[in-house]
Amino acid sequence: MIYLDNGATTLIKPASVGRAVTQAMRSMASPGRGGHPPAMLAAETVYSCREAAAELFNVLEPEQVVFTMNATHALNIAVNSLAKPGNRVVVSGFEHNSVTRPLTAKGAELAIAGTKLFDTEDTLEDFERKLKGAQLCVCTHVSNVFGYVLPIYEIAGLCRLYGVPLIVDASQSAGVLDVDMQKLDAEFIAMPGHKSLFGPQGTGILLCKNMGKPYMFGGSGSDSVPQHMPEYLPDGLEAGTHNVSGIAGLLAGIRYVKATGTENILHHEQRLLKAMVNGLNGSQAELFTGHGQSGVLSLRVKGMDCEQVAGALARRGICVRSGMHCAPTAHRSAGTLDTGTVRFSFSPFNDQRQIKTACSALREIIAKGE
Q1: CA angle, corner 357, sides to 352 and 359, nearest 5?
Q2: What one-character DSSP code corresponds to residue 48?
Q3: Residue 313: in which H helix or E strand, if any?
Q4: Which end of the chain is more exposed for a tag (fewer CB within 10 A), N or C?
């Protein structure tokens, strides 16, 4: 099997991640739910993960690292904390439904800025026009469909200039690109654990500048008598039992990222991207590629349905994703809403041989019209 769907979930993970999950399941209870060794070991592991994440993302205090079920959960907390009905909220033209649906549910008015693919100048000009008078900005760092790296630090600077709070969706950038909480000065940064941080599914992180509004209510392991959630981080946003085994695996994944280096991971994935583009040049595949792109490549083949192409690849043992990728806004911006795309997304555990095989397989599929 050649797994090239890392933009959804990194299936191939460091061996240390699986070991950490298994060990936690066998030895750890729940943090804040006892003073016995299994509970204390769980508390130490969870706090170590907060510390590791705080260091990787330049967060001032580990308590500002809140654990969630996934990036969607984290974004819902952030949106619920800052957006109000009728607010004008600026978003990019490449947002995931995890951004646009919570904002729509809140009754916010969306102002879409920057719809030209791989055009940072246009993106910044449009954000500057639309941020004036806005109440909130929510922006992805990298398009999950096209790998377009948005100029998030410049957008953050514009938000500061116009006094607009910023929420960053780092779902496709955390673990690959520089994500610096202090430099961005964002109110919240949301990310999954199961993508480029190499943690298990069911893990996520919300980096918080300040306390947000609780999205779930229940036990926190602290301040049990009052019937409101604690008004401090992280307890106030972490109701219920932690996914301790998942967080233990996430800690191992973050340690792998720190040891490997995000720059090295990015350069490796970009080399694979370049190899795939070169391997498909001259074919009948329409490639969506340009300046400022991470390790994600979308394409489509004229006369062939994207699901058909992905299915033919799957029969050859090559795993990709096709369709809308939960991001109709991005497809509308790129002009692919009617067709969707086939997406290849890379990780440190892919190599040049796999890319060569995938290119040959796709050329064969196109030639046969499968």
Answers
A1: 95
A2: H
A3: helix 306-315
A4: N
Q: Are 5 and 320 in contact (CB under 8 A)?
A: yes
Q: Which of these, 10, 48, 80, lies nearest to 244 by C-alpha position?
A: 48
Could you report the per-residue pLDDT of 308-338, keeping only the tens digit for each?
A: 999 999 999 999 999 999 999 999 999 999 9
N- to C-terminal Cα separation, the chain: 20
Greatest alpha-carbon span in the chain: 69
Reported as a pLDDT band with limits 50, 70 and 90, residue 222 is confident
Whole-angstrom distance, CA of residue 301 vs CA of residue 54? 43
Mean pLDDT of 54-59: 98
Question: What is the C-alpha separation between 72 and 205, in angstroms, rounded?
Answer: 10
Amino acid sitting at position 87: N
The type of residue at 258 is K
In the numeric block, the tokens 């994944």 are attached to 253
Give every CB contact of residue 355 below 8 A, 6+ residues apart in sequence.
272, 275, 276, 279
pTM, two decimals, is: 0.97
Please choose, from the candidates 250, 194, 256, the residue with its C-alpha nearest in 3D space to the C-alpha of residue 20.
250
Whole-number Cα distances in Å, 274 to 80, 218, 349 = 40, 49, 16
At residue 370, the pLDDT reads: 81
pLDDT digits (tens, 9 = 90+) for 25-52: 999 999 988 899 999 999 999 999 999 9
The secondary structure of 326-350 as a DSSP string is T-HHHHHHHT-TTT-EEEEE--TT-
CB crowding 154-164: b at 16 or more within 10 Å, else e: ebbbbbeebeb
Q: Angle formed by the axes of helices 352-368 and 306-315, to 10°?
A: 120
